[in-house]
Amino acid sequence: MLGLAAAVWAFGSAGLDSIIAIARRLGVAGFLLYCVYSLGVFGLLGAAWLAAAVGERLPRLGLFTWARLMREAASDLLPFSQIGGIVVSARMLTAKGIASSRVYASLIVDLTTEMASQLIFTLFGVAIVASILMGGGEARSLRTLVFVGGAIMIAIMGVFALAPRWILPLAGRIGQHVLPGFVAATEEIGAELRAIYARRGRVALSFAINLAAWVASATGAWIVLSLMDV
Which of 39-48, 49-58, 85-94, 169-178 has the lowest mean pLDDT? Predict the structure, then answer.
């Protein structure tokens, strides 16, 4: 409710009449078109997760797409941001009979390839912005911000890629004092991760599809702006 109130205040301060006038350009048909298009983007995201789940076949695409959609929805609605969505989507897949070790291992790989593809996508954007900034003028003041932001993203990606190698053993040592069978569970996830990374083609496919999803998401923004004559 606080978030909704803040959004209403932001719209009001920006000029609600102007926002409504621009939104009307989109129209009901344009809004529905964008909704359908967004579902197609989630089809790509589901395919990327499925590619990371070695052992799961193409008929499971709909299930993984629905889980990916739930992950995004829950992340937007529940506390703790992405954690809520991860829990909801993982429990949904395990409830459908997929081994929990495979679900969590493929989820780690999917998140890693998603971040890696986001890095490439962002660096491409940084390169475009940099070409504008090099032109001088007022844009020159943004150079440091852009390049520092790119460097931070590279560092975060490196940490995230290496994280499973030390987080899982650490979690196992902590969990053995709290939950029975926790160490065995983390060992199963570790074994599943090694099996996935041994299939480099599947990991590369997950990366490529996630990158395509980022491009498709940007294309969706372009479609909306075009429909609004912006």
Answer: 169-178
C-alpha radius of gyration, the chain, whole number: 21
pLDDT in tens, 120-143: 888 888 777 777 777 666 666 666
Give the integer Cα–Cα distance in Å for 97 and 68. Answer: 17
Side-chain half-sphere CA neighbours of 112 within 13 A = 22
Residue pair 46/66 in contact by the 8 Å Cβ criterion: yes
**121 exposure class (CB count in 10 Å sphere: 0-12, 13-18, 19+):** middle
Name the DSSP class of 53. Answer: S
Q: Give the Cα separation of 159 and 57 in Å (integer).
A: 31
Query: What is the C-alpha separation between 162 and 171, in angstroms, rounded?
Result: 15
> What digits encode the pLDDT tens for the residues 174-200?
555 555 565 567 778 888 888 888 888
- Whether the CB-CB separation of 37 and 223 falls below 8 Å is answered with yes
Which two structure tokens, joined as six digits, stand for 82? 């992405």
Global pTM reads 0.77
Helical segments of the chain, H only: 2-14, 16-52, 61-77, 82-95, 100-133, 143-175, 182-198, 200-227
Is pLDDT larger for residue 66 or for residue 176? Answer: 66
Angstrom CA distances, 208 to 17, 111, 201, stand at 42, 13, 10
Q: Residue 230 carries which DSSP code?
A: -
Torsion sign, CA atoms 75, 78, 81, 85: negative
